[in-house]
């Protein structure tokens, strides 16, 4: 049957450089086992898939058909457009040119996100070999990446908590294979997160190294976006158990004693004189009052410290990448390693930035 799909041009992204804008999906897109309903499209040829936005969008958590220093504002013919039909979301960077290399020709390529989790990169025009694109001013990447965020306690050098981004997986495409008319398809593998019961988590042949955390009612191998919560709730230890450990059965003797309970009054145990109860209550009340006084004192001290130290550093991000199955030691990487992006503010002008471009059959 014939149907129409509306392709929308994003007016803001099509006329700016190094900008990114949020786009809501009409379906849940499974990305590394996590259902994503909102993405961020960037002018630089990639989609940011992270839940927490920051200025280092090019670092990780991306779907990048061709991440590079594209400048859609150079030409009126350069646009960033997209389409969502309920089961498929497509972003197309159409006739975009490299910053300060505009005379080398336009690039046209797209990323397609399917509701089953598969991702397809299509390349219509690639006028310059990707390996010859300069990465000094902007990273050049092709592939997928995901990461989790861990919050570390304040250090001796800073009173602020450190938010550290750990890249736990990356897929890279051989850039020499990217030519005009080429395409690549990524098919997602099963993940521990898809199992919703302990039995499936521990016995499924589709996945390996999965553990069940009964406290969170979650199946995981411990390396996904929920890693911080997995550690906070002591899931690494809890997941070592078996499914039957989470459904303890009371001994028969205990069950029979419950069934034989009668409403008859029981003999009261000898009690202490009444004045002893009064003394214990007084002690409890005094302890509660002392705790409240201590809490108020600490709060006042904290407020005083913040007011007298206005230059305390805010939480900042570190970036680490997993190599050879082990997490490297902490090293701060300057943000200059990754191009910074400004996110387009949502507001009354958002709808004015979307134009119906064409109908497809």
UniProtKB/TrEMBL annotation:
Signal peptide: none
Segments crossing the lipid bilayer: 283-306
Entry keyword Oxidoreductase: no
Highest taxon of the lineage: Eukaryota
Transmembrane recorded as keyword: yes
Swiss-Prot/TrEMBL keywords: Glycoprotein, Membrane, Signal, Transmembrane, Transmembrane helix
One Pfam short name: PSI
Subcellular location: Membrane
UniProt membrane topology term: Single-pass type I membrane protein
Residue intervals of the PSI domain: 191-236
Cellular component GO terms held in the UniProt record: membrane
Gene3D superfamilies hit by this protein: ligand-binding face of the semaphorins, domain 2
Entry similarity comment: Belongs to the plexin family.
The protein, known as: PSI domain-containing protein
Species name: Xiphophorus couchianus (Monterrey platyfish)
């Amino acid at each position: 049957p014939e149907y129409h799909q509306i392709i929308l041009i994003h007016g803001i992204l099509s006329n700016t450089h190094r900008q990114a804008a949020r786009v809501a999906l009409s379906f849940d897109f499974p990305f590394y086992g996590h259902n994503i309903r909102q993405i961020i499209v960037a002018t630089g040829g990639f989609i940011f898939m992270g839940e927490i936005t920051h200025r280092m969008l090019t670092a990780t958590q991306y779907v990048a058909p061709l991440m590079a220093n594209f400048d859609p504002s150079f030409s009126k013919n350069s646009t960033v457009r997209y389409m969502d039909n309920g089961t498929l979301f497509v972003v197309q960077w159409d006739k975009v040119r490299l910053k300060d290399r505009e005379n080398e020709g336009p690039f046209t390529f797209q990323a397609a996100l399917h509701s089953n989790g598969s991702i397809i990169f299509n390349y219509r025009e690639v006028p310059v070999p990707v390996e010859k694109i300069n990465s000094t001013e902007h990273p050049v990447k092709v592939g997928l990446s995901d990461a989790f965020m861990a919050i570390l306690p304040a250090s001796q050098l800073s009173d602020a908590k450190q938010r550290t981004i750990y890249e736990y997986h990356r897929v890279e495409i051989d850039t020499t294979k990217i030519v005009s008319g080429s395409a690549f398809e990524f098919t997602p593998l099963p993940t521990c997160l898809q199992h919703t019961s302990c039995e499936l988590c521990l016995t499924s042949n589709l996945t390996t190294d999965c553990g069940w955390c009964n406290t969170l009612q979650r199946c995981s191998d411990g390396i996904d976006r929920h890693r911080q919560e997995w550690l906070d709730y002591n899931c690494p230890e809890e997941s070592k158990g078996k499914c039957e450990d989470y459904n303890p059965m009371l001994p028969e003797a205990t069950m029979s004693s419950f069934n034989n309970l009668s409403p008859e009054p029981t003999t009261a145990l000898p009690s202490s004189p009444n004045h002893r109860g009064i003394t214990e209550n007084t002690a409890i009340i005094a302890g509660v009052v002392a705790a409240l006084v201590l809490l108020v004192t600490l709060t006042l001290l904290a407020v005083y410290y913040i007011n007298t130290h206005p230059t305390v550093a805010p939480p900042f991000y570190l970036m680490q990448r997993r190599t050879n199955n082990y997490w490297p030691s902490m090293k701060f990487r300057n943000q200059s390693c990754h191009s910074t992006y400004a996110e387009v503010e949502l507001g009354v002008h958002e709808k004015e930035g979307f134009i119906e471009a064409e109908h497809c059959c």
